[in-house]
Amino acid sequence: MIHGSIHLLEEKCTSCMICARECPTWCIRLTSHMEQTVPAPGARPRTHNVLDTFTIDWSLCMYCGVCIEQCPTDALVWGGAHVPPADSLADLLHGRDELAPTEGGG
């Protein structure tokens, strides 16, 4: 298993915030909102979190894997190589698009 960058499997993320709370460097930030599901006839309405933003600040990340280990839905997985150096700190903030796995699986 290559322990490099971290990928977000967005369809599995429930916005529970466990990854952000358990991260020792607080490099993960996420926002979400609540949506109500359409109930089946006779059932009560339910709400669930919907992910709005998810960002990892690679200038803070220690690549420790705590977020991956603690994620109850396996929405975070090890990706390929480490994130390359950048010209500015802003370039080390990766959002949902950059954290998505590539077609090649890594």
TrEMBL record:
It comes from the Bacteria. Residues 4-33, 52-81 form the 4Fe-4S ferredoxin-type domain. The keyword Phosphoprotein does not apply. PROSITE patterns: 4FE4S_FER_1 (PS00198), 4FE4S_FER_2 (PS51379). Keywords: 4Fe-4S, Cell membrane, Iron, Iron-sulfur, Membrane, Metal-binding, NAD, Quinone, Repeat, Translocase, Ubiquinone. One of its GO terms (molecular function) is metal ion binding. GO terms for cellular component: membrane. PANTHER family: NADH DEHYDROGENASE UBIQUINONE IRON-SULFUR PROTEIN 8, MITOCHONDRIAL, NADH-QUINONE OXIDOREDUCTASE SUBUNIT I 2. This is 4Fe-4S dicluster domain-containing protein. It comes from Tessaracoccus oleiagri. The lineage of its organism: Bacteria, Bacillati, Actinomycetota, Actinomycetes, Propionibacteriales.
